[in-house]
Design brief:
homodimer, mainly alpha, 11 helices, 69% helix, flat, DNA-binding
Chain lengths: 219, 219
DNA sequence: GTATTTGTGGATACAGCGTACGGTAGCGTC
DNA sequence: GACGCTACCGTACGCTGTATCCACAAATAC
């Protein structure tokens, strides 16, 4: 079977989906492909480039959502596609924001985002656009990371409250019982019921609202 | 010289500051402390716990900003302290949002943030607070990561335009010259002049504005 | 004072990692 | 037939986190 960058990236993604980024090694990818580890270096400069490749494959999927009718719908679609991609490929969130995304599909997503935002009210010039893109991307990166991290811990601890109490509880409940973190305690105890997607949606709206507000004093 | 968790964490932080998280190893920390690598395991369960330790030391510094007069000043102070800390300890941004922050000082920062936000207009109940904290933290995490990543690439490529063109240019300019990314191209070419701190400030205001808006239809 | 237990620091070892390097087999060209 | 070139391959190096064993010193028991 003939190797190729695409095939290598595809199996790397499959392995990373299954065992996380830490569990991913060139040796395992090579073994999965039935070749020696060094064969991969004929197609890829080093592991970091392979990661870039994997990332851009994911961006390709995000870029598929294409253009919607209005700027807001487009932004919403891209944001949700990014979130969906990160939930399918949790390792993606580990890399989000941590390296420049310069692959062709990543650039396509960036272009679509920027083009949409440039049509938003409150985005008057290039500086506004620069900042709007920054704010939106920052939120998406942070929100997705947060959600994936949360999902991982609840998966490792178990979903029900009893298991949670048993694993993180001893330390965390002791901490919260000190009374030094009353607000956090209330959030932890009472706040678990919120739907993740709804929260993402709501906060995305929050950020977009902030962007589209015309402020008189801009700083 | 007597070892301690604090001393280990301190030297680990120093090494990580100097050589990044990838360049950090238990062996190097031990050598720096003049002991065998296995000694560290008397104070720390594994490398991951050491990382948690390091993270909480940084949060201690962030927590120092304490309470300001109004909720907004408090939030601004915490956000800026987080940014400052990440710029001083770039590895901190690699970890931001990627693992639960449950150390005492991290909880203190979370408490201060949540307490401040609970006094913000537009935050009416616990659900609002939960979402506001999420939105704010997401933005901070994303913005800080973005800034550190950007700083790293400009450092590795060189700051002036010529060096940039030489290192990333061949690929990136070729990409941008395809004409498929016109908006991104304009941003890259024209947008480098913005001050980072100002941008952070501006976007932070944007997010806070979004939070404090009272929306009639909340979803 | 001697014997025995206990704890503390060190050295060694293992499995796995990314990747540098040297060798070999096939093949087109003189 | 000889040669250089290219595509493949296995081996090897230095590094990682960490488990395990071992020596020695201090403390306790008789």
């Amino acid at each position: 079977m003939q190797l190729s960058r695409d095939k290598i990236a595809a199996t790397a993604i499959r392995l990373a989906d299954a065992h996380g980024l830490d569990g991913l090694s060139l040796r395992k990818i090579a073994k999965e492909l039935g070749v020696g580890p060094m064969r991969l270096y004929d197609y890829v400069i080093n592991k970091s480039e392979l990661l870039d490749l994997m990332v851009d494959v994911v961006y390709a999927r995000i870029a598929e959502v294409g253009q919607r009718s209005g700027w807001r719908d487009t932004v919403l679609a891209i944001a949700h596609a990014t979130r969906d991609a990160a939930l399918d490929h949790e390792w993606f969130s580990d890399v989000l924001g941590g390296r420049p995304h310069l692959g062709p599909h990543a650039l396509a997503v960036g272009e679509a985002t920027a083009a949409a935002l440039s049509a938003a009210p409150g985005v008057r010039d290039l500086d506004d656009l620069q900042r709007a893109v920054g704010a939106l991307n920052a939120f998406i990166v942070g929100a997705v990371r947060r959600e994936v991290t949360e999902r991982r811990t609840t998966r490792s601890t178990g979903t029900d409250e009893a298991a949670f109490q048993a694993s993180l509880g001893p330390y965390l409940t002791r901490m919260l019982n000190t009374g030094r973190y009353p607000t956090v305690a209330r959030l932890v105890i009472d706040g678990a019921h919120l739907n993740a997607e709804e929260t993402f949606n709501h906060n995305l709206t929050t950020v977009l609202d902030g962007i589209t507000i015309r402020r008189d004093v801009t700083r």
